[in-house]
Specification:
Length: 356
């Protein structure tokens, strides 16, 4: 039990709407748990800030945030600003600067939630994706020559370091052993086509796997995994993939487990030298921004992951249990899950279930 300093970045679109519900849960926990305090510092950065200043965050933004223990992040993206500017201006620099190389994205089909996959029973899908989060295909390495001419030449370089690759693969194995469910780790690459970085990834996977003989392993190509996630998602346990591939397969996993509005994400700095960051997997969702109908459960589940990271295991467990019950009871659901409730009503319901 302690005092925790948190950076809050609602960001764009529905980000601030869902972050309000995450804070609502934290506020109720603090008010009802002796000795537990959360101090928030709000950073009003994102696309609105960009319109005013030409930057997604101030020049010294990374320094301003770094003193906090963790970051609760909403979403980034704007219909009028190119996506590479919004993403490269706020979210990706934080993941890199704070060395958040281990991204954890669980996907679980909750009782009470219907998968769009016919015939899938509740509870059948329970997998966790480990995403390499600071390099790979998202490395800001490349260049553009002779723009607008017939000789235009563009290079985008994938970066795989031994440290980053081994770190994410080992994190996946360690988690698999702790979780002790199917005891299987699936590595996802495209090493038949990408003969440098992804062949290297396969080699590192083999080396790390040798330290965990009790864990079953498989190495699959990403196109096969895309099919299998919609055919047999219940076959997967722990999955590990590069930045881009894990981003894509975690969206598929979110959808087959009922809604993008349920999928949380943790961007972890394993060495705890810098703050880790917790966010919903979903983006800014312009189509529903301002309507008050965004599902806040992904953010609230991200809050549970943050509490666990902060050493508040009991509070984390309570939040998870309240989310599970709200989905089981199906009384207060947003439209993505077939209900008519508002974002705020779902947050209120989670808070009610926390103390029931
Ligand atoms: N809350 C996550 C978010 O804003 N996602 C927008 C996005 O495009 N993310 C890409 C990524 O997570 O790498």
């Amino acid at each position: 039990m302690a005092e925790h300093n948190l950076a809050i970045i609602g960001g764009d679109g529905i980000g601030p709407e869902v972050i309000d519900e995450g804070k609502k849960v934290l506020d109720y926990l603090a008010a009802n748990t002796p000795g537990l305090t959360f101090n928030y510092t709000e950073f009003p950065w994102g696309s609105a800030y960009y319109r005013e200043t030409g930057r997604m965050m101030p020049e010294d933004g990374l320094d301003q945030v770094s003193a906090n223990e963790a970051i609760l992040f909403g979403a980034v993206g704007d219909p009028d600003i190119p996506d590479h500017i919004t993403l490269q201006g706020l979210l990706l620099p934080m993941r890199r600067a704070y060395d958040q190389g281990v991204c954890v994205r669980p996907a679980y089909l909750h009782p009470g939630v219907t998968s769009p996959l016919a015939g899938k029973s509740a509870g059948g899908i329970d997998l966790v994706i480990f995403r390499e989060n600071t390099e790979g295909e998202y490395a800001p390495v490349g260049g553009r020559l002779y723009p607008g001419t017939p000789h235009e030449t563009v290079m985008q370089t994938n970066v795989f370091t031994r440290r980053g690759t081994e770190r994410i693969i080992r994190a996946a194995f360690e988690y698999c052993v702790r979780r002790n469910r199917r005891m299987k780790v699936t590595s996802v690459t495209k090493s038949n086509a990408q003969a440098f970085g992804m062949v290297f990834w396969d080699e590192v996977f083999q080396v790390v796997a040798a330290d965990y003989p009790q864990v079953e392993t498989e190495s699959l190509l990403v196109d096969r995994v895309a099919m299998d996630l919609v055919r047999w998602p219940e076959d997967f346990d722990v999955m590990v993939a590069s930045n881009l591939f894990a981003d894509i397969i975690s969206d598929i996993a979110a959808v087959v487990t009922g809604s993008m509005g349920l999928a949380p994400s943790a961007n972890i700095n394993p060495e705890r030298e810098y703050p880790s960051m917790f966010e919903p997997v979903h983006g800014a969702a312009f189509d529903i921004t301002g309507k008050g109908i965004a599902n806040p459960l992904a953010t609230i589940s991200a809050v549970a992951m943050m509490l666990d990271h902060l050493g508040e295991a009991e509070s984390s467990r309570k939040v998870d249990a309240a989310v599970v019950r709200s989905l089981q009871e199906r009384k207060v659901m947003t439209p993505d899950l077939g209900g008519t409730a508002t974002t705020s009503q779902v947050g209120d319901e989670v808070v009610r279930l926390l103390w029931e």
